[in-house]
Write a structure and sequence with these properties.
Blueprint lengths: L4 E5 L4 E5 L7 E6 L2 E5 L5 E7 L1 H10 L4 E3 L6 E5 L2 E2 L9
Antiparallel strand pairs: 1-2, 2-5, 3-4, 4-5, 6-7, 7-8
């Protein structure tokens, strides 16, 4: 998965990682402060991290560890605090 753009606002303490172009159909909150924007096919189009300073240590500690979250079909492989994975969601 290629990162198109990373936007970071230190004043607001947020970051957005844009992974795909196109319209966002749905946003899924995987955990407080970690939101995934999905396109119409259910592919992850972007990732928003709120309270970046608070979540950064948690993201870095996940490096190289596969995770299975509480949503179906969601598997992650973290690499340097950025997501590199093939993710699919069911749009309901």
């Amino acid at each position: 998965m290629k990162v198109i753009k990373v936007i970071k606002d230190e004043k607001l303490d947020v970051a957005y990682v844009k992974l795909r172009r196109g319209k966002i159909e749905k946003t899924v909150e995987l955990r407080p402060g970690l939101l995934f924007d999905l396109d119409k096919k259910g592919d992850v189009a972007g990732i928003e991290v709120m309270s970046l300073e608070k979540l950064a240590p948690m993201l870095k500690s996940m490096k190289g560890i596969p995770f299975l979250f509480a949503l179906p079909h969601v598997k992650f492989n973290w690499s340097t605090a950025l997501i590199t994975a093939e993710l699919k969601f069911s749009l309901i």
